[in-house]
Predict the structure of chitinase.
Amino acid sequence: MRGFTRRLVAGVAVASAVVAAAPAPAQARAHTKDSYVKVGYFTQWGIYGRDFQLADVQQSGAAARLTHLNYAFGPVTADGVCASADPWADWQTSFSAENSVDGIADAAGQPYAGNLNQIAELKAANPKLKALISLGGWSGSKYFSDAALTDASRKKLVGSCLDLWIKGDLPGLSDGIAAGVFDGIDLDWEWPGSSGEVGNIIRPEDKRNFTLLAAEFRAQLDKLGKVNRKKYLLTAFLPAAPAKIEAGFEVDKIFKYLDFGTVQGYDFHGTWEPRTNQQSALRVPAGAPDNPDFSVENTINTWIAGGAPKRKLVLGVPYYSQGWTGVTGGGDGLFQPATGPAPGIFAKGTEDWKTLKKLPAQGFTVHRDLRNGHTWLFDGNTFWTYDDPAVLLQKSLYIRAKGLGGAMMWSLDGDDEKASLTKAIAAGLR
């Protein structure tokens, strides 16, 4: 996520054309208000260099439009248990009044602080919002295969995850001190049965073991839920590539245990390739050099064909871009050779939408493929593929027409101070 990582008013004319061209969302009539899930990922490390706080999620209006907040990430250790990747960020650091959701500075001696306390404040301000801890991620999935290998190892992992994140037994503090912060678990094993980060442990048995791990999470969450009279959620982040789906997931079995699965709808192409391309198109664009190729439609259809229930598929959308520089070949820059990744503030080849939206004033031209649902920027040398509010509205209409469960956003820190992207999705899925 994932590989590691628009103004709606400005896109009204384009959005209107998208709405007119979109198929009638007949299945949407079966949905009631707020029945679509809107899942936003908040990154643990975003509070540092990006200076993006949970207070920003509240103050921008994003929180009021989300149904679920996924906190990324909690790694699985070599010992096969859940742990914190950064206890300082999670529950130790104090926030000023300016950076606190409730506007009150953390005080010395309070039970716990950090992002977990801010999540609790965010939920208090938005009572319908559910928070989940996302386990693994691109750099935290190395030992998932070991932890899922046997019945005993699965029980050990799940028990430790519930103790730490659901029961709130924070190390060095009183047991249960952070109980109630999280309402469930999001499995971000990247990837069972196929490659992810270099050095990840991979086994052919991962495919079956993912199902068994999901079953164990479901069983232990339900058992705890009976005690607490609470429904705990279990979700998973799922890949786009058909080969990864086939290698790692018993598609017709896993949704018995999952409340829903968020499907990767981005990183279809990127700067690991020598030519420009789309990273998140709704459909494969005309003239695409790869056949077969990735698209939202192809990915969703693959999951459905495998037996996934439509209403449990939640489409992931990017709040960031993939970018190339040294682009030659002329034209609008699409499908052209490039010398390498474009400069980015936090990493080469990627950039937040909140930065990209300023580029048209700096000599970049916005290009749109309304039929196939993707947008890009090009100035004759540098190329960025991204989603803006108009594209997200089009994808929201696709979600409705297809009968899917909702949208997931990676990640909230890429949005602007007005939460323009989140508001576009919420408008489409209201």
User: Anything to note?
Assistant: The chain has a mean pLDDT of 93.
